[in-house]
Amino acid sequence: MDKVRCLAVWGARIVLASCTIACGDRQSSVPPPQKPAVVASAPQVQSNTPAAPPLVPVEQIPGDKEGTIGVENTSGRSGAFYVPHLSSLDAPPLLVILHGTGQSGADMVATFRDLARTRHFAIIAPDSRDHDGQLTWEVGDKQGDVTPDLTHTMDCIAWVRSHVGFSEDESHVLIAGYSGGGSSAPYIASNRPGFTHTAVLHGGVFPGGIGSRRMPAWFSTGEDDRIRPVTLVKQSADALAALGFTDVTFHAYPGRHGLSDAELRELIDWWLSH
Q1: Are 228 and 204 spatial neighbours (Cβ–Cβ below 8 Å)?
Q2: Which range (85-89, 175-179, 266-270) has the least confidence?
Q3: What pTM was computed for the model?
Q4: Which of 234, 176, 178, 240 shows the shortest CA–CA distance to 207?
Q5: Which terminus has fewer CB within 10 Å in the chain: N or C?
Q6: Which of 170, 57, 167, 50 lies closest to 114 in space, CA to CA?
């Protein structure tokens, strides 16, 4: 089995007007040994999430800290972070967010920044590697797999903790993945300590690569999402439940393959109230 599979689950993927989902992304299979039938490239289109503006240098955002992460993967890509203004006693919740195929961490910071400011949580958004022209994630599909993207994600978290100088609320550390990044979220969360919640947004899972750790899990997609249809995302949620994830939430929202305001808001409400 090709180790680099984009989570373009079941079809082609679309995100952020030319930057979210490419069907070259590794597909989700639920449950094994069934494999995704289509792995083809398609234009990237994201209908609901606006294109991300360039990151504003840290000094231009009074009180906030935002910028580029100082470690790179083998493709020379790094990631982005955002930390809201903190007092010396603050320990904010932490969102680790994995972008869709063709996107970057900066896109995800732009998507969640307003919520992070109002709900007071930090964001770490790694970049995936470039695989033959596809900016996509490598997901482990069997026990013990350690992919370079997993390692880079953990390196990004360590860099922000040490260089930005904050300690997160250890009871609220969510790793979420959108579209092509979806399957990487439960894969990393179940194989590395420290994560308390995981979420798959318009994506799926590779059950074979899920590790031993268990935590609350969120799944959501669009009611008219043709790339990640409701039935297939629901199957992915059921696959995690069958592996012993006892607290699995599933929601379908009006719309297609885009992150709506309601979806983002309710995801954060679920996480911070859980």
Answers
A1: yes
A2: 85-89
A3: 0.78
A4: 240
A5: N
A6: 50
CATH code, 58-273:
3.40.50.1820
- DSSP string for 219-272: EEEETT-SSS-HHHHHHHHHHHHHTT---EEEEEESSSSS--HHHHHHHHHHHH
Q: Which two tokens stand for residue 118?
A: 């109002």
- Angle at the Cα of 211 from the Cα atoms of 209 and 213, rounded to 5 degrees: 150
Q: Which whole-number Å values give the CA distances from 118 to 68, 135, 205, in the listed order?
A: 22, 30, 31
Packing angle between helix 261-273 and helix 105-119, nearest 10 degrees?
Answer: 60
How far apart are the C-alpha atoms of 108 and 99, rounded to whole Å? 6
Q: In sequence order, which residues have a C-beta less than 8 Å from that of residue 34 and are 6 or more positions away?
A: none
Domain positions in the chain are 58-273
CA dist 259 to 48, 81, 271, Å?
6, 20, 16
User: The tokens of 185 are what?
Assistant: 């979220």
Q: Which of these ranges, 48-52, 78-82, 251-255, has the smallest mean pLDDT?
A: 48-52
- 94: helix, coil or strand? strand
Annotate 187-211 with three-state secondary structure: HHHHHCCCCCEEEEECCCCCHHHCC
Amino acid making up residue 196:
T
Distances, alpha carbon 88 to alpha carbons 85, 123, 134, 161, 165, in Å = 10, 18, 41, 15, 10
User: What would the mean pLDDT of 139-166 be, rounded to a whole number?
Assistant: 95
Distances (CA, A) of 272 to 95, 130, 197, 214: 11, 33, 10, 18
